[in-house]
Structures are given as C-alpha cells and as structure tokens.
Design a protein that fits this description.
By secondary structure, this protein is α+β, with helices and mostly antiparallel strands. The chain has 2 domains: 61 residues, Orthogonal Bundle (Arc Repressor Mutant, subunit A); 155 residues, Beta-Lactamase. Bound molecules: zinc ion. Zinc ion binds next to loops.
C-alpha cells in the first residue's frame, strides 16, 4: 500500500511531540506502529523529513539525531522549560526553544573557549538574565554553508562565548571577520520565522527569499548572510 500523502507531515509532528514530551526522539518501530507502515516505508518517511531539513539522522541509519532544535545526544546546550530539561543542538537552537514554545526558558551552557558556565533566561521575546553579561552567540560559518553538513555545523560552529576576548582567543575564530557575533535577543528574533510554528502540524520551513528578507529587516546583510 502506498504511503498516504499526509503521513510525512504527521510523522514530523509525531517526532516533535515525542521530543517535547520525552526529551528523546521516537524510534523507527514507533513510527511503524503509530502510522501502520512497513520498516521500509517508515525509513523512507524519515529520510524524506531529513531531505526537507526537519531532522538529521545518524549517518547510515534511520535513528533521529536532531529534530531542530532538539538533540537526541548530550550537548553543551541545556534548556529548561516548563520544568523539563532538553539538549539543544547548538547555541542558536538553545535560544530557539523560546520562539518555538513561547514559554520562559533557561539555558545552561559553556564558553566555547574556556568552559566557563553561561546562563541565560529568555522571557517574552528577550533575554532577562544573561550571565556573564557580555555573552555572545558566534556563528563561525556563513549562512550558505550551514547545510553543507548540518550535523557538523550545529555541533561545532554555533557556540557561546563568555566575551569578545574569549571569542578572539578561540581557534574557532581563526580568521577574523569570517564569522558573526549576535546577542541572545538577536538570535531570538532570528529564530521566530524558522521555529515559531515548529509544533504546528502544517509547519513548513520559510523560503530562501523570506529568510533573506528577514535577515535584511534585522540589518543582517553582506556576504555572510547570502543563501
Ligand atoms: Zn571563556
């Protein structure tokens, strides 16, 4: 039997609901059972969600590693919301929980240079507690390269630094001017069109042009932000 047309979007929602409730992804067998699919069909649906940039799978498997912003593996980006704790994929994804859920969130992370603790609280669209106060989010790769290998991009190149000095001391910032630094508030604003409707059944990623327009309204222009 062919896969009904609405199954991929329902599986996407199932994955995100499962992550929200359990802080872990569902497995293929759960997708097979919940949607009456064969293993091959369930695997095909997960691969289609990966191609549509909703999830990233562990290479060579049908295991869900990332459903942005959720991470199945332990990371340096801990998020607490409504009394539940999650791992986010990167500094951006950690802050994006606020746009996705519209609840107060607490982020516990580390300076990528010196491992000093970093703590943030986001409420009603802005950072209400930032410790240390000079915390910045550093994006090392230009936007056009984020999806070359999203697992590497998320895991290694979107991080917190305690201060500009620690950013400059880090090997990640080897060529000055190649990356950008953003405040937590800017990262929240950046997140809204990408994450604001993630928990809706009909969520669709914004088009390239609408993302570029959003970048431009934030003053984020130039080569780094080209897609
Ligand atoms: Zn540091």
């Amino acid at each position: 039997m062919p896969i009904p047309e609405d199954v991929p979007k329902r599986v996407r929602k199932f994955v995100f609901d499962h992550f929200l409730e359990h802080a872990a992804p569902p497995i293929v067998e759960q997708v097979m059972t919940a949607f009456s699919l064969s293993r091959e069909q369930a695997t095909d649906v997960l691969h289609s969600l990966e191609a549509a940039r909703h999830v990233a799978l562990v290479k060579g498997t049908a295991r869900i590693l990332m459903a942005f912003p959720f991470s199945a593996g332990a990371t340096p980006f801990r998020v607490t919301v409504r009394g539940r704790r999650y791992f986010a994929n990167c500094a951006w994804d950690a802050i994006a929980f606020h746009a996705m859920l519209r609840n107060d969130i607490r982020v516990e992370s580390f300076c990528h240079h010196c491992a000093a603790p970093i703590n943030l609280e986001m409420r009603e669209g802005s950072a209400v507690h930032v410790d240390p106060e000079d915390v910045l989010v550093y994006l090392a790769l230009p936007a056009a390269r984020w999806w070359d290998d999203i697992i590497t991009t998320c895991s290694n190149t979107m991080v917190f630094f305690a201060s500009p000095e620690h950013r400059e001391a880090s090997a990640l910032c080897a060529s000055p001017g190649s990356g950008v630094s953003l405040t937590p508030d800017q990262v929240h604003t950046l997140s809204v069109p990408l994450y604001g409707k993630k928990m809706d059944l009909d969520y669709a990623r914004p088009s390239k042009q609408s993302l570029l327009d959003h970048f431009a309204t934030m003053g984020l222009t130039g080569d780094f932000w080209k897609l």
